[in-house]
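Quick one: examine this chain and its backbone structure tokens and tell me how the chain folds. Here goes:
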Amino acid sequence: MSDVSTPNAEVIEEERVSETRRAGSPRTLAATWAGVLLAPGTIITGMVAAGGSAGPGFAYGFGGLALGTIVGCVAVAFISIWGPRTGMAQMPLGRLAFGALNFVPQIFLIASLIAYNALNDLFGVNALANSLGVPFALALVAVVAIEVVVVIFGVRLMKILGMIISSVMLVICIWLLVSVAGTAPDPAPAMQSGFPLGLFLLAVALGLSGSIAWTVQACDLSRVLPVRTSARGVFLWVFLGMTIPLLVLGGIGAWVSTDIALANPMGRVQELLGAGPAAAVALVVLGVSLATANAFNDFSAGLSLRQMGVRLPRIACSLIVATAGLGLAIVSMHTSLGELTSDIVLFAGYYTAPWFGVAIVELLSRRHDSQPWRVPAQSSKAAAIAFVAGFVLLLPFTATPLGNQLAEQYPIPFGWFGFVARDVFDGGGSGFIAGVLFGVALYAILRRVLPNSPQKLEPLSHLSE
């Protein structure tokens, strides 16, 4: 996940934006979300959904991807409504339920950002190596150097690069659409007969991973709008701004999915763009966009570490996360990029499902509060237990190459990973849906069963009032 196009970036470090400092129309959310999601990773996710010769093919792969995308975008659009109502960023908003235990989901957030960093590092290196013909090590140094520079200079540079990259990415997307117009997708595997339930559900999960995973950052964008902004308008424009780029780019990826594309995604993109200087420049831009996305991930993780009490400068915290992502990228450099994409976009996003379940129960219970940020969490233990238990309980419903490998090689400790997916759904995962349902059910029950322990209200002097 990444966001290099956040409006009003100067308020990103504030937990709450005051009503006097807000402006804009919900229409701007569509352009902002489109800028965020016009990214190479969306194309690659589409390739994985169709699966090459081992997948369901374009029709079932894109159909599942589209279904998951639409459901996930509905969730993000719905929770975005609370941005204008509260002026709060998404993770601080989660403190309404988690209270002092808000660090628990933040740990999961940081781990997921490290995983996404590793994937972006590898794809960025892939793009630069293909476009410039340089060795892996040199391309990796270039990607990391861009990332570090953006981390050091912070939000202002992210905002400038985000505007430039989003504009260029729009051109590249149109270019890709024109390129694929004259081609046909690979046919579905010959051995496939009937409805491929497992592969279809895997495509649905990939669609959810690219959409519902954004619920942990949804209000970061909408909170800068005036408090009286239409909830219907926020929902509509967020939904449109997310679904259109996700479906278009995911569709392109599914359309051009082959075994070779899964092994070298950026090579397949280069093939579509053609030869010549313009194609090389386009791939360089893709590499820079991935490095910039990583810088925003580092920035977000650095802020989370600071909020958790780590007494280091934000830049130092961000560089620690960048180093961890780099280390994971180096360790994973010989792994199939198709399998690695499936592992990371699923595993790194699963935690958002029970988090969303907990958060939405809390927000709905406070829907009549005019100033919900002034009311402390009533049962932070219930929220933390529901979140962690929901995450553990969803694991049998997951379907990832890594999870299946662990279950096969180490059946005693890990055999329960994905067993429902393998035994009931023909290898297809339903972890995101299960996670949301577990989060909702557990928190709704536990917040009534466990004794209320309202926490002392934190002073708001550090917030923007």
Q: What stands out?
A: The mean pLDDT is 86. The chain has 22 helices and no strands.
